[in-house]
Design a protein that fits this description.
The protein contains one helix and twelve strands; from the N terminus they run ββαββββββββββ. By secondary structure, it is mainly beta. The chain folds into two domains: 93 residues, Phosphorylase Kinase, domain 1 (2-Layer Sandwich), CATH 3.30.200; 86 residues, Beta Barrel (Elongation Factor Tu (Ef-tu), domain 3), CATH 2.40.30.290.
Length: 200
């Protein structure tokens, strides 16, 4: 019996689209034009497409897709585009709370370069996050403020490790129909685009 979340197949996709979907309720006054938006949640949407592959590779990918059992199973995925260098030893210097989008991290020497970059992905627990603003230099305590998106969905204790080395998110298929390969004129298998959303 499969244990979820599954690892992603070793066959890397040829194309990837990772998009953040904000769930919002927007209201605009018909009299003054004043605008108000309410955030209810935010969720990563993922599309991956494999290129042509061997029949042996296709069998492995198809078996992996079928083991997800439609929308029941989940899998881990690491963004293929991730700027910045792997930074290790970084933890939360203070607790980070649900619905927050900024935290104080530590693990650097006083005044050291953080080496973190805007746009870089990381994860806390199972939640995939992307840096939107970060200090270039750590303060005298070896701490730095990191702003990110989307907002946290739960609380994290001080000392929680931030994974910048190979950040992952947990996803599930959007459809209950499992994508299957099609043989082209050369009998080389090709899969349709795999569509998934972050498992919340």
């Amino acid at each position: 019996m499969a244990t979820y979340p599954l690892s992603f197949p070793s066959k890397a996709p040829a194309r990837e689209k990772l998009q953040l979907n904000y769930r919002q309720t927007a209201m605009e006054s018909p009299h003054t034009g004043a605008f108000q938006a309410t955030n209810t949640a935010a969720q990563w949407n993922l599309e991956v497409t494999w290129g042509r592959m061997t029949q042996a590779e296709a069998q492995i990918v198809a078996a992996w897709i079928n083991s997800l059992k439609g929308q029941v199973g989940t899998f881990r995925y690491s963004p293929r585009i991730n700027i910045g260098v792997p930074v290790t030893g970084v933890t939360l210097a203070q607790p980070a709370y649900a619905y927050g989008d900024v935290c104080r991290m530590g693990g650097w020497a006083a005044g050291a370069e953080t080496r973190l970059r805007v746009g870089q992905f990381f994860n806390l627990g199972d939640q995939l996050l992307q840096i939107t603003a970060v200090a270039a230099i750590a303060d005298g305590n070896g701490h730095a403020l990191v702003e990110f998106s989307p907002m946290l969905r739960k609380d994290f204790a001080a000392g929680t490790e931030a994974n910048f080395t190979k950040p992952t998110g947990v996803f599930r298929l959007i459809s209950a129909e499992s994508p299957a390969p099609t043989l082209d004129t050369d009998r080389a298998p090709e899969f349709p685009t795999l569509q998934a959303k972050e498992a919340i």
